[in-house]
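Retry 2 of 3 after timeout on previous attempt. Resubmitting structure tokens to design endpoint.
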């Protein structure tokens, strides 16, 4: 972790850039690359096939605002560690709730709903967490996504209105397994 969100962004962009480079390699190049970075070939090949790390990628350090959290999710993180920034605000629960909501809802924002001339990352076209990603893939396979789009239905995420009394304030993520102790209000 870092204490500066700019460094956290650079770090995640570096990771995702390496993965994009890896995806463009053929199998012989992957073998040489794995050898060069002293990583197991199977793990490097799995990363290439998935197009992401085969483990959870958390952003840590410097994430202090809902915008920072949403940005890190858009860059490819699966979750966010938020530390003392929550306790520096006047209303701890409200600040934590806004960060959770930014992570939960950043997928639902569309460029057309945003003011013009915002930086590209404000469009929040992201995949949130492995659980959300799997749910979205299942919906696509079942044609649910198209049906919802046709009927104008909006997915209501059960994590939208969290009671933060049971949520660890150190880990704020869209991953249901991590937030399993949270209750709806």
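Retry 2 succeeded. Sequence:
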């Amino acid at each position: 972790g870092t204490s500066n969100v700019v460094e956290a962004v650079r770090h995640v962009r570096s990771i995702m850039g390496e993965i994009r480079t890896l995806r463009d390699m053929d199998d012989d190049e992957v073998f040489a690359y794995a050898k060069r970075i002293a990583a197991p070939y199977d793990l490097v090949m799995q990363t290439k096939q998935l197009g992401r790390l085969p483990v959870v990628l958390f952003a840590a350090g410097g994430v202090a605002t809902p915008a920072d959290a949403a940005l890190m999710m858009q860059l490819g993180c699966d979750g966010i560690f938020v530390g003392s920034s929550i306790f520096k605000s006047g209303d701890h629960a409200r600040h934590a709730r806004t960060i959770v909501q930014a992570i939960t809802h950043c997928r639902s924002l569309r460029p057309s709903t945003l003011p013009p001339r915002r930086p590209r990352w404000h469009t929040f076209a992201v995949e949130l967490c492995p659980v959300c990603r799997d749910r979205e893939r299942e919906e696509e396979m079942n044609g649910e996504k198209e049906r919802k789009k046709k009927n104008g239905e909006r997915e209501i995420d059960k994590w939208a209105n969290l009671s933060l009394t049971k949520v660890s304030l150190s880990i704020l993520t869209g991953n249901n397994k991590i937030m399993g102790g949270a209750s709806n209000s």
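Attempt log closed. The longest strand covers residues 58-60.
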